[in-house]
Amino acid sequence: MIRFDNVSKSYPKQNRPALRDVSLEIEKGEFVFLVGSSGSGKSTFLRLLLREERATHGQVHVLGKDLARLSNWKVPHMRRQLGTVFQDFRLLPNKTVAENVAFALEVIGKPRGEIRKAVPQVLELVGLGGKEQRMPGELSGGEQQRVAIARAFVNRPRLLIADEPTGNLDPQTSVGIMKLLDRINRTGTTVIMATHDQQIVDQMRKRVIELEQGRLVRDQSRGVYGYQH
Amino acid sequence: MRAQFVMSEIGVGLRRNLTMTFAVIVSVALSLALFGGSLLMREQVGTMKGYWYDKVNVSIYLCNKNDAQSQGGACAKGAVTEDQKKEIKADLEKMPVVQSVQFETADEAFKHYKEQFGNSPIVPFLTPDQMQEAFRVKLKDPAKYRVVSSAFSQRPGVQEVEDQRKTLEPLLNLLNGMNLAALGVMALMLVVALMLIINTVRVSAFSRRRETGIMRLVGASSFYIQTPFIMEAAFAGLLGAGLACVLLVSVQYFLVNNWLAHQIDVIQFIGWDAVFAKMPLVIAIGLLMPALAAFVALRKYLKV
């Protein structure tokens, strides 16, 4: 599903590379935590997966495709098979919950009938049944993140990328979000989640990949958070 | 692509930047009106050239008795003789550039002069024998005036060879100069319009960065992301082009047809068909130029 072969990434005007010689493989259906202190290269790792950036050295394969050789105009099609969730939700404040989720399908040209069917379904799945017509501002942080997850999952992606999805939420709400991500993972979707939340990582006991100063320092199945920050 | 979605995006975008959109529309309208106006002006100068060049002649003025007495120079050898006249006429008719030759007697010249300058104070003092006889020569190509001039200006009995086209030239030059000035102002307005469009796109892209960011993440094609911006600019440009057409029509109606045509009747002014013929071009440019500018601006201001 995902393979990194000796991947390095340096940004111009920075002498220290953001990623150094990272090699790893993630199988279909896995749930992976990506941990590391700020500046360790987590964000760069995720940006490489989304092909927001290209690797300076080495090869990144996502969904069987070598991203270095993927031409620009094919990138949108590749991204349709990925779902993304962020710490800051990134919802459109002037659209209702249902419209926010529908937006993701509209802009990739899905037919209206399909959208009308898929949106209530996925909102039900994330536990927001009955809140279709609410505005994001009326919802709690946890509920907003559920909308974002619904939007990321409505197109049934094969890979869900979550960048600190619980970063803005209290521990109790975070547990709810983690249960939801776990449920999505059980449908066969690969989940990669960057996080700073020690409790969650220790509870879930999933594979843990730790980066430190751009290097892969730990890759442990059923791991724990494992370091103090 | 869902048309309804695109249309609503365009509406939202245009309303969000109402002042900027207005500025784009006005500057596009002005530059296109100047563009259309200058095209029409060129056509006007063209028709005037065609109309007048057709009428003007090369005149070969012949010496009369008065000239021979009062002036030295070309007529020092006395008034033109019948033999000289015959010779000149025969030589003129032999020249390949000459289309037709007409002889104007002093009486005819007197009559024409009275017609043209009837209210001049010197008319009462003129008599027919003060007028000059002349050959009115029509050339196949009015620009070949020099051939006639060099062949006849030194002939005995010839006072002067005059190209009437020369008297028209300053007027035509003035019109061409005005045309160039209009083109210069147009170029300036066009630059202003382009900068406004680029700035509008930048503001628009910034105020919609949330939407476009999400579109990018969920895999909307760059075509889908960029289209609303480009359509927005094209729509504003179209409104500007429409306004430019209205301006052209009103200038033709109020200034040319209802005023100038009454004031100056020796000029044949261009008609509605010429005005309407320019409109498709004006509209096409009004549509494409802003769209292209927006497309270029998006490459800089919108990551896709």
TrEMBL record, chain A:
Where, per UniProt, does this protein localize? Cell membrane
Which GO molecular function entries does the Swiss-Prot or TrEMBL record give?
ATP binding; ATP hydrolysis activity; transmembrane transporter activity
Tell whether Cell cycle is among the UniProt keywords.
yes
This protein's GO cellular component annotations are:
plasma membrane
Keywords for the protein's UniProt record, in alphabetical order: ATP-binding, Cell cycle, Cell division, Cell membrane, Membrane, Nucleotide-binding
- Which residue intervals define the domain ABC transporter in the entry? 2-228
Question: Residues of the signal sequence?
Answer: none
Q: How does it sit in the membrane?
A: Peripheral membrane protein
Which InterPro entries does the record match to this protein? Answer: AAA+_ATPase, ABC_transporter-like_ATP-bd, ABC_transporter-like_CS, ABC_transpr_LolD-like, Cell_div_FtsE, P-loop_NTPase
Any Pfam family the entry gives: ABC_tran
Highest taxon of the source? Answer: Bacteria
> What GO biological process, any one, is recorded here?
cell division
Q: Quote the function comment for this protein.
A: Part of the ABC transporter FtsEX involved in cellular division. Has ATPase activity.
The entry assigns this protein to a family as follows: Belongs to the ABC transporter superfamily.
Subunit field text: Homodimer. Forms a membrane-associated complex with FtsX.
Indicate what this protein is called per its UniProt record.
Cell division ATP-binding protein FtsE
**What is the originating organism of this protein?**
Streptomyces luteoverticillatus
This chain is encoded by the gene named ftsE
UniProtKB/TrEMBL annotation, chain B:
Record's superkingdom? Bacteria
Question: Where does it primarily localize?
Answer: membrane
Q: What is the topology of this protein in the membrane according to its UniProt annotation?
A: Multi-pass membrane protein
Instruction: Locate the transmembrane regions by residue number.
Output: 21-41, 180-201, 233-255, 275-298
Instruction: Name the keywords, alphabetized.
Output: Cell cycle, Cell division, Cell membrane, Membrane, Transmembrane, Transmembrane helix
Please state every residue range assigned to the domain named FtsX extracellular: 56-161
Q: What subcellular compartments does it reside in?
A: Cell membrane
* Residue ranges occupied by any ABC3 transporter permease C-terminal domain in the UniProt entry: 185-303
Question: Which GO cellular component terms, listed alphabetically, does the Swiss-Prot or TrEMBL entry include?
Answer: plasma membrane
Concerning Gene3D superfamilies, the annotation shows:
3.30.70.3040
Q: Which GO terms describe its biological process?
A: cell division
Cite the InterPro entries for this sequence. Answer: ABC3_permease_C, FtsX, FtsX_actino, FtsX_ECD
Question: What subunit structure does UniProt give?
Answer: Forms a membrane-associated complex with FtsE.
Q: Which NCBIfam families match?
A: FtsX_actino
Provide the function of this protein: Part of the ABC transporter FtsEX involved in cellular division.
Protein family: Belongs to the ABC-4 integral membrane protein family. FtsX subfamily.
Identify this protein by name: Cell division protein FtsX
